[in-house]
Design a protein that fits this description.
By secondary structure, the chain is α/β, with parallel strands linked by helices. 38% of the residues lie in helices and 13% in strands. It has a single domain, classed as Rossmann fold (3-Layer(aba) Sandwich). Strands 1-2-3 form a three-stranded parallel beta sheet, covered by helices on one side. The mean pLDDT is 84.
């Protein structure tokens, strides 16, 4: 996923934990966040993303976690290149609203 987005000209910053992700988003002002729902949950990270209205795309493997209620897209693995790019471009064009469960 990182290489694909990089090939399309996106700057991609990676984090292994919610704490790392919080440090990255606080220091870089991203236009979108893509996170796997199975990563350790960090309420401070999610609160920061929510309070700064950063669109949140979640990747899942079937029913393997709780999707944040303010996620703008849920991509079920394995997803295609086009599915990922459509979600990212849709978010960046502003064509998103949180998914309601």
């Amino acid at each position: 996923m990182v290489r694909l987005l990089d090939r399309f000209g996106f700057e991609v910053l990676e984090a292994a934990t919610g704490e790392e992700a919080l440090a990255i988003v606080a220091g870089s002002a991203p236009r979108a966040v893509i996170a796997d729902v199975t990563l350790p949950r960090d309420e401070r990270f999610q609160d920061y993303v929510r309070s700064h209205s950063i669109p949140y795309i979640v990747t899942v493997t079937t029913d393997d976690g709780v999707v944040p209620p303010d996620a703008v897209a849920v991509l079920e693995k394995p997803f295609s290149r086009d599915t990922l790019l459509n979600a990212v471009f849709g978010v960046l064009r502003g064509g998103h609203s949180p998914i309601t469960a």
